[in-house]
Amino acid sequence: MITALVVDDEPRAAAALTELLETFPGVDVIGTASDVGDAERFLAGRSPDVVFLDIDMPGRLGFDLVASVPATTRIVFVTAHATRAVDAFRAGAVDYVLKPADRDRLAITIERLEAWAPAARPAAAEDVQAAAAGDGEHGSQAPAGMVTLAFAGGRGSETVALTDIVWVEGVRNYTRVQLRARQPGMVRRTMQEWEAILPASAFGRISRSLIIQLAAIRATQWQSRLQTLVFFEGVADAMPLGRAGTTRLKELVKP
User: Fold this and answer.
1) 3, 88, 94, 245: least surrounded by Cβ within 10 Å?
2) Rounded to whole angstroms, how far apart are CA atoms 103 and 27?
3) Which helix (H) or strand (E) holds 103?
4) CB 187 within 8 A of CB 177
5) Do residues 164 and 71 share a domain?
6) pTM over 0.85
């Protein structure tokens, strides 16, 4: 699954690109941003696999965001101007797509991203060893209502209460787990495994790459029809949700 952030100051263009990307089964648009500052705030809390980034936006250009993009996140520039391609590839872009993008052109981009993804985030030997040592890590040795997390990169393991898990986000071969009053940690476990572990009465799957604890939500703030901010107990930063995620959340929390 490729997770994506769409950055464009034109709401119609952002919506059109989001709709096209979501026609690909292997792509999950996890948020949108209307300018560089909005995108920086998003990337401070989440690391999508790819940012689809407009260049000409009010205030700051798309190039100004490059320094804030995580090292494991790829950039695809989507713009109406054919003359900036050299600058885009110098900035490390995977692809350069001219507006208005169509599905056939985006299919080429997705193929490039899929070719990059397995090599970009390999399963390190110590991660596999941690996972094997932790089953445990799949919860079989943990007491009821608890789960053992074997952290990626050989950072050890920890047994925590399920109620302390605020959200789980799929990131290729890993999942990023946000605990209350903690920084998120990377765990070698799939979203399907988490869905089997986390009780459906307390947790809801918002998208293919995101499960959240519904009771941990303390507030939501509507930003636009393309984005909602969700605030959780014990977590300082809000989580941005895209249009599809917002719709799913409303379905889960409706009376």
Assistant:
1) 94
2) 13
3) helix 103-120
4) yes
5) no
6) no
